[in-house]
Amino acid sequence: MQPHTLVLAVVGGIGLVGAVVAAAAILAVAQAAGAPPAQAGLYVSLVAGGGILAGLAGWWLLHARLIQPLEALTRDLRLLQSDPQPRALELPAGHALGRLPELIEGLTGQLEAARRATGEAVALATRRAEEQKSRLEAILVDLAEGVVVCNLDHRILLYNQAARRLLHRPAGLGLDRPLFGVLAEEPIRKTVAMLRRSASDANPVLRIRRCEVPMVESEVSLKARLGLVREPNGEISGYVLTFTETMEGGAAAPAAPEPIPPRPEFYDFDLFRPARTTLPETPLRQIPFVVFDTETTGLNPDGGDELISIGAVRVVNGRLLTGETYAQLIDPGRPIPEASIKFHGITADMVAGQPPVNEVLPAFKTFVGDAVLVAYNIAFDMAFLAKREKEAGVAFDNPVLDALLLAAHVFPDQPDHSLSAMAHRLGVNVEGRHTALGDAIATAKLWVKLLVMLEARGLGTFGQAVEISQRMMKQRQAQAPGVGW
Fold first, then answer.
1. pTM of the model
2. Transmembrane region positions (predicted)?
């Protein structure tokens, strides 16, 4: 039985009992006074009828002013429970609930405010966690070092792509999988135990130890560094293993090929002027870029050297668009020295019949549009464009950024900032090195990685990139010329 039905039954029962008691009392009084039975029965009927009507009136009043409002209140509260959007309670007029609905609405409002504050706090914490995660991902993705984090049970908690590459993409490498499925157990256990002994209260500094760790079922070993992970409460919960080199049969892996002689840098502070006032505050990820490279007959634009090739690719919203490229050979109108052919492989036969520079530059300008120009040591390439732009009837006055200078900022301790060295450092696969398009695509791949790394360092706008470039240019001008092609 529902509560309101029980209440109505009780009220009805009380009214019926009252009517019966009243009728019996009137009948007894009438009989004592000697009233005729018919008259006494009339009195009883009137009293009983009045009692029943009074009970029905009381029942209706109770139902209309209390039971129905309570049912409506219950319905509204259930609706708020399933859909916590703030809304007014819909109660019948003239209810007898007093200030109860008002108090409930006040509590509901406070609950909604608390829920909103909690939601905002959760959203803020989520955003911060995502930002920290993005920074960590940017650092891990762009690290050339392999990184593996394990707990004290030697199960893998984290690893990066460089670790997969250096470990030759083993099937046993995975989250919550045992590290000893891919690396030898003894040197790791020995190093962890040694570090844990040194991490006593008397020696609270956790040092990093170097070790050589063989790969499982392989003659290849890793030159590694191992450090412990300490929780805020001081407990040691695991360790971090980093490695950069592999050794085969106790000897270091073969060295990289001999680097190509460096390309001289050209500097021009005017290259970094913004083209519009809104650009400095624009996030780099929102800026369309055209990343380009040129090949030339030599290194001296003022000494008669000319363009022989231009290659370019678009980067939009932080993505390299491999389907939007530009590649064009150019007839320089002069011989190509053998010394230059050794670098780019472009011969006189290859440029014979190709359009001259004054026809190529307008087409390239059309491809560029109003995008920001990016190149590796861009002053060199811009010097050759500027040399012939008046003759071609175009002006490359686009904003520019130099990937070389920004790479030097991100990796200040890197001894070699050449395109080949940085591509190797960041794991960029270079195809068609020393062709204009091949170098442009390699630079674009590197550029996309630099955007992520700059953003992770809180340097995500064009204006900030220009300031960094100007500062790095001053530093490099103070160094010996000829570093970094």
1. 0.47
2. 6-30, 42-62
